Write a sequence for this structure.
């Protein structure tokens, strides 16, 4: 499978910000958390605050002890990459 092989920019990540299609980044790793929403102990609204963004600081503020790497193992789709803006000029 291609699981975990995607390189995802912040721009691409930002498109996945709907309840039916939620990606987020934690510490440079991109997760598709769409299927996890109903299981989040903090509720869907809280999780939606992190939809489509680098959610590292939100996550760390709320529950740094949570083992997201294990919980979201099967939701891992890739890594967050930064694109140098000067490349396209
Ligand atoms: C609670 C998982 C992202 C807000 C929890 C708990 C887990 C969890 C396991 C229970 C923790 C405990 O009781 O010790 C996750 C996972 C995330 C995630 C795997 C990654 C996708 C977030 C984000 C936010 C958030 C980004 C905020 C924007 C909360 C809140 C609670 C909570 C407020 C507390 C609920 C309560 O005790 O009333 N989450 N969470 N979570 N989460 Fe998350």
């Amino acid at each position: 499978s291609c699981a975990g092989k995607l390189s995802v920019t912040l721009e691409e990540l930002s498109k996945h910000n709907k309840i039916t299609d939620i990606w987020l980044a934690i510490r440079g790793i991109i997760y598709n958390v769409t299927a996890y929403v109903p299981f989040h102990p903090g509720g869907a609204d809280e999780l939606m605050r992190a939809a489509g963004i680098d959610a590292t600081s939100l996550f760390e503020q709320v529950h740094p002890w949570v083992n997201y790497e294990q919980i979201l193992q099967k939701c891992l789709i890739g890594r967050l990459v930064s694109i140098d803006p000067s490349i396209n000029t």
User: Anything to note?
Assistant: The chain has one domain: 6-83. The chain has a mean pLDDT of 92. The longest helix spans residues 56-62.
